[in-house]
Design goal:
Radius of gyration: 16 Å
CATH topology: Alpha-D-Glucose-1,6-Bisphosphate, Chain A, domain 4
Strand content: 25-35%
Number of strands: 8
Structural class: alpha+beta
Order of helices and strands: EHHEEEEEEEHH
CATH superfamily: START domain
CATH architecture: 2-Layer Sandwich
Largest sheet: 8 strands, antiparallel
Number of helices: 4
Length: 166
C-alpha cells in the first residue's frame, strides 16, 4: 500500500533539507514516534539508521540520498512487525518560494499474503501517525525545539529512568 503525506513548512527548502539529510540519524531527537535513533555511517546511500521504540530496534537502510533533488529513500530491513513483508519510505523537500517549502513522505508498506486483510488497519494507523511525525518535524525545523508531544514523552521517560534507578 502506497500512501502520501505532506506538510508545508515556513523555512527555506535548503534549511528543511539540511535538517532532514544531515540530521537523518537524529530523528529520534524530535519525533515522539521514536525513543532514540543513530546513523551508522555518513548521511548517504548505503548508511543505516537504528531506531529504538521501547525495547525494539528497527534498522533502516538508506537506498538513496539525493542532495540535488532533496530526497532520501530508505527501507526497513530489520525489526519489521511479523505481518509486514516490505516497508519503504521516501522523504522529499520542495521549495514553495524563498521562505517556504513542502515536505512530502511516501511510505510503501506491503503485508505478507496471510496478513493482507489487516491492511486497512495498517493504513488507518499510518494515517494517524505520519501526520503527527510531519507536524513534529515542522515544529523542530521552524522553532529549533522539540514538539510538546516529544517533550512530554522525554519527561515521562526521564521520570521512569529516575524511578527505576537504584
Amino acid at each position: 500500500m502506497k500512501l502520501k503525506f505532506y506538510i508545508d513548512i515556513n523555512v527555506p527548502a535548503q534549511k528543511a533539507w539540511h535538517e532532514l539529510s544531515e540530521g537523518f540519524g537524529d530523528t529520534g531527537k524530535w519525533t515522539s514516534l521514536l525513543d532514540s535513533s543513530i546513523l551508522i555511517g555518513a548521511a548517504k546511500s548505503g548508511a543505516h539508521r537504528e531506531c529504538r521504540i521501547g525495547k525494539r530496534t528497527l534498522t533502516e537502510h538508506i537506498t538513496k540520498m539525493d542532495h540535488n533533488d532533496m530526497q532520501v529513500d530508505y527501507e526497513l530491513i530489520d525489526g519489521r512487525p511479523p505481518v509486514v513483508a516490505y516497508a519503504f519510505n521516501s522523504w522529499s523537500v520542495s521549495p514553495l518560494g524563498e521562505t517556504r517549502c513542502r515536505v512530502t513522505m511516501l511510505p510503501d508498506i506491503r503485508m505478507k499474503w496471510w496478513a493482507q486483510p489487516m491492511g486497512m488497519l495498517v493504513r488507518f494507523g499510518l494515517s494517524q501517525t505520519m501526520p503527527k511525525v510531519l507536524n513534529e518535524f515542522k515544529h523542530w525545523v521552524e522553532t529549533g525545539r522539540v514538539h510538546p508531544r516529544k517533550a512530554k514523552k522525554n519527561s515521562k521517560n526521564n521520570m521512569q529512568n529516575v524511578a527505576t534507578a537504584t
